[in-house]
Structures are given as C-alpha cells and as structure tokens.
Amino acid sequence: MNQIARSEIMKRKQIILDIIMTVILVLIMKIANTGTLLHEVLGIGVFLLFLLHKYFNFKWIKVVTKLIVGKKATNKTKFMYVLDVLLLIVFIAVIIT
C-alpha cells in the first residue's frame, strides 16, 4: 500500500472518529437523554476517543508547535493553535468535573 492510500485511510478514520465523538457529545449534553450511568460511561468513552483523536493528529501538533516556536506561523495558524489549546483545557476540565 502506498503512502497516499495510507494517508487517505487515516483521513477517513479521523473523520469517522470526529463524527462519533460529536454524536456522543450531543447525546451526553443532557443526562435526561441517557440516564446517569450511560452518561458517565459515554463520557469516559469520549475521553478515550479524545485521546485517540490527539494521537491521530500528533504530527500536526508537532509541526505547528515548531512553526509557532520558530515564529514562522501565520496569524490564522496561531489562532487555530490557541483555540485548540483552549478547547483542550476546557475538555479536560469538563471530564474532571
């Protein structure tokens, strides 16, 4: 299998993962939708999927971090990076609480 085919498969996996995470997050926004036990189980599942999501995107994180440290990143890239870090902090805070 060539590199382009692997890249396309990885992109599809990332999109499927993002869709699954979004659906679960919408379901668990209100405990009445799932009940307490399922809410907590799905919450732990989303956290694990979130870690997998970060693993899949680790290459991007490394590249963009190097660009920002080297002061070569565009303003849009810096904004997206800061937004990603803030979302990471909020997501962790929600998981902890």
Q: Care to describe what's here?
A:
The protein has 97 residues and is an all-alpha fold. The chain has 5 helices and no strands. It has helices spanning 3-28, 31-34, 36-56, 58-69, 75-96. Helix 1 (3-28) runs antiparallel to helix 3.
Topology record:
Blueprint: H1 3-28, H2 31-34, H3 36-56, H4 58-69, H5 75-96
Helix pairs in contact: 1-3
Give me the strand/helix succession. HHHHH
Count of DSSP H/I helices? 5
Structural class call reads mainly alpha
Beta-strand level of the residues, as a percent range? under 5%
How can the largest sheet be summarized? Answer: none
Radius of gyration: 16 Å
- What is the 3D shape? flat
Contiguous low-pLDDT stretches (5 residues minimum) are none
Average of pLDDT: 89
Distance between the termini: 44 Å
Question: How many strand segments?
Answer: 0
Task: Specify the helix fraction band.
Answer: over 70%
Brief sketch in words of this structure:
This protein has 97 residues and is mostly helical. It has helices at residues 3-28, 31-34, 36-56, 58-69, 75-96.
